[in-house]
Amino acid sequence: MDLLVLGGTAWLGAQVVRTAVTRGHTITTMARARSGPPPSGVRFVRGDRSRVEAYPAGRFDAVIDVARDPALVTTALDALADRVGHWLFVSSCSVYADQSVPGGDETSPLLPALIGDYSDEQYGEAKVRCEQLIRDRMGQDRCFIARSGLIAGPGDSTDRTGYWPLRFAHPATDDGAVLIPDAPNQPVQWIDVRDLADWLVAAAEAALAGTFDAAGPATSFADHLTTVRSVTGHSGPVVAAAPTWLTEHGVAAWSGPRSLPIWLPDDYAGMLGRRAEEAAAAGLHTRPWSHTIADVLAWELQTGPGRVRRAGVSPDDERQLLAGRS
């Protein structure tokens, strides 16, 4: 199979390339290579995706695209639609209009499609527009849309999925106490980056069509942390703080500096609780939760546990917050 990966140097794209190479396919990647070095063993085209003439020549059996800007999807379609057999697009579960109730599926109402220029504040709306453009140009039977949930695994540069394994493995306090949000019943759901890449390549091989929520089985926040503690061997105190107390003390939810990652406000309770049955029926296989956690921890330790993180509470901040709870 001749496969074109638009990107291929960042986290998911690079994993897709590695998977496709392992499965014996001929790979071309196109990127600016700002997220990392070009992958080895593939044809690499350095180019600006906003220019039609920058795209590689030739015909391809399939394209795998992870774009978030509809303008770049439009340019890619203009350049490639007539010489590509199948279009695989990584969308997001952020496309759904109501994230408050767990158990939603692919039929749930969507946000309005983005009109105008892309902004991060309208990420979900932009992905909706990207999906529309691909379906309109390629037709339903020539496109595969994977609405990804939270992506986890080694290499997670957002630092969300590695925060809890690293903190429980290396607590900030002498007694091993770890601060957590008091949200035991919140759903937690993710897809390992390697499982998502495997499924994307398999879908390209099979010319699979349709729209799917790409996520693994959901668990509760309490069970998630229980698994993390089991993998890391943590036996110290676990200190639960009410969401209101955390907010009052400047601790954010979900992601970013001074946050407790993967914790979500109540009005986003369904964001990590999609049904995801259609993807499983279409061949998405997910590894055990504990395997991803162990591999993420190994990557965190190799990368350097003392580095400045993009998400989480620093050890100094956690010690101060825990002192305020006593």
What do you see in this structure?
The mean pLDDT is 96. This protein has ten helices and 15 strands. The termini are far apart. With 326 residues, it is an alpha/beta fold. The chain folds into two domains: 2-150 and 191-214, NAD(P)-binding Rossmann-like Domain (Rossmann fold), CATH 3.40.50; 153-189 and 217-325, Alpha-Beta Complex (UDP-galactose 4-epimerase, domain 1).
Secondary structure elements and pairings:
Elements: E1 2-6, H1 11-22, E2 26-31, E3 43-46, E4 60-65, H2 70-80, E5 84-92, H3 123-138, E6 143-148, E7 151-152, H4 160-169, E8 178-181, E9 187-188, E10 191-192, H5 193-206, E11 210-214, E12 219-220, H6 221-232, E13 238-241, H7 243-248, E14 252-254, E15 259-261, H8 277-281, H9 289-303, H10 315-325
Parallel strand pairs: 1-2, 1-4, 2-3, 4-5, 5-6, 6-11, 7-10, 8-13, 14-15
Antiparallel strand pairs: 9-12
Helix pairs in contact: 1-5, 2-3, 4-6, 4-9, 6-9
Summarize this, please?
The protein is α/β, with parallel strands linked by helices and 326 residues long. It folds into two domains: 173 residues, NAD(P)-binding Rossmann-like Domain (Rossmann fold); 146 residues, Alpha-Beta Complex (UDP-galactose 4-epimerase, domain 1), CATH 3.90.25.10. It is built from ten helices and 15 strands.
Oligomeric state of the chains in view: single chain
**In the CATH hierarchy, what is the architecture of the largest domain at level 2?**
3-Layer(aba) Sandwich
- With strands numbered from the N-terminus, the spatial order across the biggest sheet is 3-2-1-4-5-6-11
**In the CATH scheme, what's the topology name of the largest domain?**
Rossmann fold
By DSSP, the count of extended strands is: 15
Largest sheet: 7 strands, parallel
Percentage of residues in DSSP E strands: 15-25%
Class of secondary structure makeup: alpha/beta
Any idea how many domains?
Answer: 2
CATH class category of the largest domain: Alpha Beta
N-to-C SSE string, H for helix and E for strand? EHEEEHEHEEHEEEHEEHEHEEHHH
Globally, the shape reads: globular
Total helices: the number is 10
Overall pLDDT confidence: 96
* Global Rg: 20 Å
